[in-house]
Amino acid sequence: MAFELKQDGKYKFIEEGQGEPLILLHGLFGGLSNFNALIEHFRHNFKVVVPQLPLLDLDLLHTSVGGLQKFVTKFIDHRKYNDIHLMGNSLGGHVALVHVLKKPEKIKSLILTGSSGLFENGMGDTYPKRGDKEYIRHKTSLTFYDPALATDELVEEVFEITNNRLKVIKIIALAKSAIRNNLGNELSQITKPTCLIWGNNDTITPPFVGEEFKKLMPNSELHFVDKCGHAPMMEVPHEFNQILEGFLSRLKSSS
Known about the structure:
The chain is an alpha/beta fold. The chain has a single domain, classed as Alpha/Beta hydrolase fold, catalytic domain (Rossmann fold). It is built from nine helices and eight strands. It has helices spanning 36-42, 65-79, 91-102, 133-141, 152-162, 165-180, 207-216, 232-235, 237-254; strands at residues 6-8, 11-16, 21-25, 47-51, 84-89, 107-113, 194-199, 220-225. An eight-stranded mixed sheet has the order 1-2-4-3-5-6-7-8, with helices on both faces. Helix 1 (36-42) packs parallel to helix 9, helix 2 packs across helix 3 (91-102) and helix 4 (133-141) packs across helix 5. The radius of gyration is 17 Å and the shape is globular. It starts with 5 loop residues before the first strand and ends with a helix. The relative contact order is 0.15.
Protein backbone atom coordinates (compact mmCIF):
# COMPACT_ATOMS: atom_id res chain seq x y z
CA MET A 1 0.00 0.00 0.00
CA ALA A 2 1.31 3.45 -0.95
CA PHE A 3 0.83 6.18 1.64
CA GLU A 4 0.39 9.88 0.94
CA LEU A 5 3.59 11.96 0.94
CA LYS A 6 2.90 15.14 2.89
CA GLN A 7 4.90 18.36 2.77
CA ASP A 8 5.37 20.95 5.50
CA GLY A 9 7.88 23.64 4.59
CA LYS A 10 11.04 21.93 3.33
CA TYR A 11 10.08 18.58 4.90
CA LYS A 12 8.52 15.68 3.01
CA PHE A 13 7.17 12.80 5.08
CA ILE A 14 4.48 10.18 5.61
CA GLU A 15 2.31 10.62 8.69
CA GLU A 16 -0.44 8.10 9.41
CA GLY A 17 -2.56 7.47 12.52
CA GLN A 18 -2.87 9.04 15.96
CA GLY A 19 -1.11 8.55 19.29
CA GLU A 20 2.52 8.69 20.37
CA PRO A 21 4.85 9.31 17.40
CA LEU A 22 6.70 6.29 16.00
CA ILE A 23 9.34 7.91 13.78
CA LEU A 24 11.10 5.67 11.24
CA LEU A 25 14.48 6.50 9.66
CA HIS A 26 15.55 4.68 6.49
CA GLY A 27 19.05 3.67 5.43
CA LEU A 28 21.49 4.81 2.76
CA PHE A 29 19.78 2.99 -0.11
CA GLY A 30 16.45 2.88 1.65
CA GLY A 31 13.26 4.84 1.13
CA LEU A 32 9.83 5.44 2.56
CA SER A 33 8.41 2.28 0.93
CA ASN A 34 10.72 0.12 3.12
CA PHE A 35 8.25 0.65 5.96
CA ASN A 36 4.89 0.01 4.25
CA ALA A 37 3.99 -3.10 6.27
CA LEU A 38 5.10 -1.45 9.49
CA ILE A 39 3.05 1.72 8.83
CA GLU A 40 -0.03 -0.33 8.00
CA HIS A 41 0.29 -2.34 11.21
CA PHE A 42 1.09 0.43 13.70
CA ARG A 43 -0.98 3.36 12.39
CA HIS A 44 -3.98 2.09 14.35
CA ASN A 45 -2.30 2.81 17.71
CA PHE A 46 0.51 5.26 16.92
CA LYS A 47 1.20 8.31 14.81
CA VAL A 48 3.64 6.67 12.37
CA VAL A 49 5.99 9.20 10.77
CA VAL A 50 8.57 8.55 8.05
CA PRO A 51 10.61 11.61 7.05
CA GLN A 52 12.37 11.62 3.70
CA LEU A 53 16.00 11.96 4.70
CA PRO A 54 18.00 14.33 2.45
CA LEU A 55 20.78 11.77 1.90
CA LEU A 56 21.81 13.24 -1.43
CA ASP A 57 20.50 16.80 -1.02
CA LEU A 58 22.74 18.18 1.73
CA ASP A 59 25.82 20.15 0.70
CA LEU A 60 28.96 18.03 0.73
CA LEU A 61 30.22 19.55 3.99
CA HIS A 62 27.08 18.35 5.85
CA THR A 63 26.69 15.04 4.02
CA SER A 64 27.44 13.05 7.17
CA VAL A 65 25.76 11.20 10.03
CA GLY A 66 25.91 14.44 12.04
CA GLY A 67 24.34 16.45 9.21
CA LEU A 68 21.44 13.98 8.99
CA GLN A 69 20.98 14.06 12.77
CA LYS A 70 20.67 17.86 12.69
CA PHE A 71 18.03 17.52 9.96
CA VAL A 72 16.06 15.04 12.11
CA THR A 73 16.25 17.38 15.13
CA LYS A 74 14.91 20.31 13.09
CA PHE A 75 12.14 18.11 11.65
CA ILE A 76 11.06 16.93 15.12
CA ASP A 77 11.09 20.50 16.45
CA HIS A 78 9.23 21.86 13.43
CA ARG A 79 6.50 19.23 13.75
CA LYS A 80 6.40 19.55 17.59
CA TYR A 81 6.62 15.80 18.23
CA ASN A 82 7.07 14.57 21.83
CA ASP A 83 7.24 11.16 23.60
CA ILE A 84 8.81 9.69 20.47
CA HIS A 85 9.58 6.05 19.74
CA LEU A 86 12.52 6.46 17.34
CA MET A 87 13.42 3.63 14.98
CA GLY A 88 16.20 3.36 12.43
CA ASN A 89 17.38 0.78 9.91
CA SER A 90 21.05 0.63 8.86
CA LEU A 91 22.35 4.23 8.49
CA GLY A 92 18.98 5.42 9.84
CA GLY A 93 19.74 3.53 13.06
CA HIS A 94 23.09 5.30 13.30
CA VAL A 95 21.35 8.68 12.91
CA ALA A 96 18.82 7.67 15.59
CA LEU A 97 21.65 6.74 18.00
CA VAL A 98 23.42 10.08 17.50
CA HIS A 99 20.11 11.87 17.97
CA VAL A 100 19.40 10.11 21.29
CA LEU A 101 22.93 10.91 22.50
CA LYS A 102 22.56 14.60 21.64
CA LYS A 103 18.83 15.24 22.15
CA PRO A 104 17.36 12.58 24.47
CA GLU A 105 14.63 14.74 26.04
CA LYS A 106 11.83 14.05 23.51
CA ILE A 107 12.65 10.35 23.03
CA LYS A 108 10.71 7.66 24.89
CA SER A 109 12.30 4.57 23.32
CA LEU A 110 14.74 3.51 20.64
CA ILE A 111 14.41 0.69 18.09
CA LEU A 112 17.40 -0.40 15.98
CA THR A 113 17.45 -2.92 13.17
CA GLY A 114 20.64 -3.70 11.23
CA SER A 115 22.08 -0.43 12.55
CA SER A 116 25.51 0.92 11.76
CA GLY A 117 27.42 2.77 14.48
CA LEU A 118 29.70 -0.05 15.60
CA PHE A 119 30.63 -2.10 12.55
CA GLU A 120 29.35 -2.60 9.03
CA ASN A 121 30.53 -4.31 5.87
CA GLY A 122 30.40 -1.73 3.10
CA MET A 123 29.50 -2.35 -0.52
CA GLY A 124 33.16 -3.21 -1.05
CA ASP A 125 36.19 -1.27 -2.27
CA THR A 126 35.16 -1.49 -5.90
CA TYR A 127 31.72 -0.03 -5.27
CA PRO A 128 30.06 1.77 -6.90
CA LYS A 129 30.63 0.62 -10.48
CA ARG A 130 28.85 3.00 -12.77
CA GLY A 131 26.87 1.53 -15.60
CA ASP A 132 27.12 -2.10 -14.45
CA LYS A 133 23.56 -3.08 -13.56
CA GLU A 134 24.33 -6.73 -12.82
CA TYR A 135 26.96 -5.67 -10.30
CA ILE A 136 24.40 -3.38 -8.66
CA ARG A 137 21.84 -6.21 -8.67
CA HIS A 138 24.32 -8.51 -6.92
CA LYS A 139 25.22 -5.90 -4.28
CA THR A 140 21.57 -4.99 -3.68
CA SER A 141 20.65 -8.66 -3.21
CA LEU A 142 23.22 -8.92 -0.37
CA THR A 143 20.83 -6.81 1.71
CA PHE A 144 18.42 -9.75 1.88
CA TYR A 145 18.49 -13.41 2.86
CA ASP A 146 16.19 -14.03 -0.11
CA PRO A 147 17.86 -12.40 -3.17
CA ALA A 148 14.47 -12.34 -4.95
CA LEU A 149 13.64 -9.31 -2.79
CA ALA A 150 16.15 -7.31 -4.82
CA THR A 151 13.39 -6.51 -7.32
CA ASP A 152 13.97 -4.83 -10.68
CA GLU A 153 12.40 -1.70 -9.24
CA LEU A 154 14.79 -1.64 -6.27
CA VAL A 155 17.82 -2.36 -8.47
CA GLU A 156 16.74 0.42 -10.84
CA GLU A 157 16.55 2.91 -7.95
CA VAL A 158 20.08 2.07 -6.77
CA PHE A 159 21.39 1.98 -10.36
CA GLU A 160 19.94 5.44 -10.99
CA ILE A 161 21.76 6.86 -7.96
CA THR A 162 25.08 5.21 -8.79
CA ASN A 163 25.01 6.55 -12.34
CA ASN A 164 25.22 10.14 -11.09
CA ARG A 165 28.76 11.24 -10.22
CA LEU A 166 27.82 13.79 -7.53
CA LYS A 167 25.41 11.32 -5.91
CA VAL A 168 28.16 8.69 -5.83
CA ILE A 169 30.52 11.17 -4.12
CA LYS A 170 27.83 11.88 -1.51
CA ILE A 171 27.13 8.17 -0.94
CA ILE A 172 30.85 7.57 -0.36
CA ALA A 173 30.95 10.60 2.00
CA LEU A 174 28.03 9.20 4.03
CA ALA A 175 29.50 5.69 4.12
CA LYS A 176 32.89 7.02 5.28
CA SER A 177 31.21 9.24 7.86
CA ALA A 178 29.37 6.19 9.27
CA ILE A 179 32.62 4.23 9.57
CA ARG A 180 34.47 7.17 11.20
CA ASN A 181 31.59 7.88 13.59
CA ASN A 182 32.01 4.80 15.79
CA LEU A 183 29.82 5.04 18.89
CA GLY A 184 31.33 2.20 20.91
CA ASN A 185 32.54 4.47 23.73
CA GLU A 186 29.25 6.39 23.99
CA LEU A 187 26.54 3.72 23.87
CA SER A 188 26.56 3.15 27.63
CA GLN A 189 25.21 6.71 28.00
CA ILE A 190 21.95 5.68 26.28
CA THR A 191 19.54 4.60 29.01
CA LYS A 192 16.30 4.82 27.01
CA PRO A 193 14.51 1.47 26.62
CA THR A 194 15.96 -0.01 23.42
CA CYS A 195 14.73 -2.83 21.19
CA LEU A 196 17.31 -4.44 18.88
CA ILE A 197 15.86 -6.53 16.03
CA TRP A 198 18.46 -8.35 13.93
CA GLY A 199 18.44 -10.72 10.98
CA ASN A 200 20.37 -13.92 11.71
CA ASN A 201 21.62 -13.81 8.11
CA ASP A 202 22.59 -10.12 8.00
CA THR A 203 25.94 -9.91 6.16
CA ILE A 204 26.23 -6.09 6.36
CA THR A 205 25.84 -5.70 10.14
CA PRO A 206 26.25 -9.38 11.16
CA PRO A 207 24.61 -10.88 14.27
CA PHE A 208 27.68 -10.20 16.45
CA VAL A 209 27.01 -6.47 15.91
CA GLY A 210 23.55 -6.84 17.47
CA GLU A 211 25.13 -8.71 20.39
CA GLU A 212 27.69 -5.94 20.86
CA PHE A 213 24.95 -3.28 20.92
CA LYS A 214 23.13 -5.36 23.54
CA LYS A 215 26.28 -5.62 25.66
CA LEU A 216 27.02 -1.88 25.48
CA MET A 217 23.48 -0.50 25.94
CA PRO A 218 22.30 -0.96 29.53
CA ASN A 219 18.53 -0.90 28.93
CA SER A 220 18.32 -2.97 25.73
CA GLU A 221 16.75 -6.24 24.59
CA LEU A 222 17.90 -8.20 21.52
CA HIS A 223 15.76 -10.30 19.17
CA PHE A 224 17.10 -12.39 16.28
CA VAL A 225 14.98 -13.39 13.28
CA ASP A 226 15.88 -16.45 11.17
CA LYS A 227 16.15 -16.43 7.37
CA CYS A 228 16.47 -12.68 7.38
CA GLY A 229 19.11 -10.21 6.21
CA HIS A 230 19.77 -6.51 6.77
CA ALA A 231 16.21 -5.15 6.50
CA PRO A 232 13.92 -7.28 8.74
CA MET A 233 10.97 -4.85 8.49
CA MET A 234 10.93 -5.54 4.73
CA GLU A 235 11.91 -9.20 4.62
CA VAL A 236 9.95 -10.62 7.58
CA PRO A 237 7.38 -7.88 8.33
CA HIS A 238 5.04 -10.13 10.33
CA GLU A 239 7.75 -11.31 12.76
CA PHE A 240 9.23 -7.82 12.96
CA ASN A 241 5.88 -6.21 13.80
CA GLN A 242 5.16 -8.86 16.46
CA ILE A 243 8.50 -8.23 18.20
CA LEU A 244 8.07 -4.46 18.05
CA GLU A 245 4.47 -4.64 19.24
CA GLY A 246 5.55 -6.75 22.24
CA PHE A 247 8.26 -4.24 23.13
CA LEU A 248 5.93 -1.21 22.85
CA SER A 249 3.19 -3.00 24.85
CA ARG A 250 5.58 -3.83 27.69
CA LEU A 251 6.76 -0.23 27.69
CA LYS A 252 3.20 1.04 27.95
CA SER A 253 2.23 -1.32 30.77
CA SER A 254 5.32 -0.42 32.81
CA SER A 255 4.80 3.34 32.52
